[in-house]
Design a protein that fits this description.
The structure is a homodimer of 117-residue chains.
Chain A (H helix, E strand, L loop, with lengths): L5 H10 L2 H11 L5 H5 L6 H13 L3 E6 L2 E6 L2 H11 L2 H5 L1 H10 L12
Antiparallel strand pairs in A: 1-2
Helix pairs in contact in A: 1-5
The first copy, chain A, binds a DNA duplex (30 and 30 nucleotides) through helix 4.
DNA sequence: CTATTAGTTAACCAGATGGTTAAATATTCT
DNA sequence: AGAATATTTAACCATCTGGTTAACTAATAG
């Protein structure tokens, strides 16, 4: 039912870094080449290059070379599986406030037989 | 608009590990204590304990002690923000097959002026 | 009291991650 | 050809990660 594929590993891991999420946001807005994508990030070009490779390996971007310029393109397909995974827990966050209250309520009520000393 | 909160970092990072996703699945099915959650995972109890702490710090589970037993409870609220983040890219994966085709199509068409040698 | 059970903490280790600078590669400009 | 531009690769480094085993704490059972 739920698959623990390494694709999901790579997708979530790629998304766990704020720089990479920013890069995805810029890609979504149409930015393309490495230098351009790197500019707003206070870090060296090789650092950005590494982030791009992580995103690429996660399948979140496609790269195409035109001469020395690498044109990047967002490919959000891997996010679909991630979204599906997360969605399975929707019912849990929907009811979570209620269940948290219930949870806190049984402060002094043990889950099963308990010696209470 | 899009926030790069460390909460999102922690959520995605927590989700990037298959053992932790399995643990969340077990929690969703009602399992509670550490020993019980650890059993199906071919690893030591301290290892599972660490995973639980990661999930806890990400806010994905709540812990309550009853004597020596730690009762865990899934809290999926952090997944909500994650889902929202991912959802922003829905339009990109919805149209991605079309746009990929278009992308591959311009195989020989440069993105802008290009010397073509 | 002693043994067992539940779980964490400590110390350690190998490998991954996220960054750096310097050098290399490839392409375009003049 | 030579200079500038776009980007990667290499080498290095500190920190994080995911696992181990051993020792510890706390609580229940006999």
């Amino acid at each position: 039912m739920v698959k623990y594929s390494s694709a999901l590993n790579r997708t979530f891991a790629a998304l766990a870094d704020p720089t990479r999420r920013r890069i995805l946001a810029h890609l979504a807005r149409g930015d393309k080449c490495v230098t351009h994508l790197a500019k707003p990030h206070a870090m060296s070009l090789p650092a950005v290059s590494k982030h791009l490779r992580v995103l690429e390996k996660a399948g979140l971007l496609r790269r195409r070379r035109y001469g020395r310029v690498h044109e990047m393109r967002l490919d959000a397909k891997p996010l679909r599986q991630a979204a599906q995974w997360v969605e399975e827990y929707r019912k849990f966050w929907q009811g979570s406030l209620d269940r948290l209250a219930e949870y806190l309520e049984k402060e002094n009520r043990p889950p099963e037989k308990r010696k209470t000393k």
